[in-house]
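Wed. Picked up where I left off yesterday with Zn-dependent hydrolase. The coffee machine is broken again, so keeping this brief.
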Amino acid sequence: MDNKKRYELLFNNINQYNSGEKGITRIAYSNEEQTCTHAFMRMCMAEHLDIRMDQCGNVIARRKGRIEGLPPVVMGSHLDTVYQGGKYDGVVGVTAALEVIKRLNEKGVETDHPIEIISFACEESARFGVSTVGSKAMAGQFDHNRYRNLVDKDGITMEKAFALCALDFKSVEQASRVDEQFKAFFELHIEQGPVLINNDKKIGIVTGIAAPVRLHVKIMGKASHSGTTPMNMRNDALLGASEISLALESAAKSEEDFGTVATIGVLNVHNGAMNVVPGEVEMKIDIRSTSLQSRQRVLDYLNQTIANVKKNRQLEIESIEISSEEPVLLSKEINEVLKSICEEKNISNQIMQSGAGHDAMNMTKLCPVGLIFIPSVDGLSHHPNEYTPLDDVMIGIDILEEAILHYAKINN
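Structure written out below (tokens, as returned):
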């Protein structure tokens, strides 16, 4: 069996673990996700890897190195999905890592450094509203008090979900590996955007991962009859929200050189009716960039706009910051190596940023990190139609294998 057919079988075997009929639903700490995780552990055991699951549910599979005591070279991603997600997000990175190990075993390659695969737990925020939980725990960033009482749509707390998986929530801090040494970490991932496809490139070499600041904005005007309230006597909350929305778009477009983006993903008109001037509107705003300065300029402009709209339209506006995260820059040295590998193999590539978060960003607290993108057709992700051609996945695996060998060092 050639590498392509072998990998396709592996990929399809993982994606058989699914609930529902549309897309892939394999939510963190669910029966489907746990069954899939344990199946992956058995696959790793078949390749003679040493397997363990840590206190957060991360799977660590290690291939021994020739020299005792050297730090591991690590690769991986996640197996959990959003509700009705796609087959590729996360899964490509985990299965690609195992395919690399299969290739090394098949060729009898021995490396100086040990090599690890990590399948991170709960990368998606779909269940509990918090993302990259497993890599946060590994990087010593697990917020025990905050996460304990987070609930899913069925009212199950994160602590209870852990217990149902035979994991002790009180012991999660033991998953931290901040006192260990790592040589490097690599994550192969679909782009989840249209850049590589539109530019006809096969590999994206990621320089940084954008981080969001998120706000919850409530706009209170005065509900009134649409037919009897003159235009100059209205306190229309929706028009205030519209003005803020367009100003935010303008501010983000002025920062395009920094890759900064802004999105209003929620806009609710409370008690809305066709014949009522909107009296209350709720907005949820996401502003993200790899440049803190650029992101702050957009945020400042937004806050000034809110103040102006509040005054000019005589509205009450409450803006609450939900979260603010730090953007992450990835290893320049690793990116130079990845660039060199692509050029040696004559693989088209592009230096780019990631607008989405990944486990890789938490691993930067432990070691140098490389994030490799492969194309997403139509830029789709978190969607049943998410798709990356198998040939593109195989190119990504080829680059990952060379990077792992570069850092793990072959015994000649």
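Quick read: Residues 292-312 form the longest helix (21 residues).
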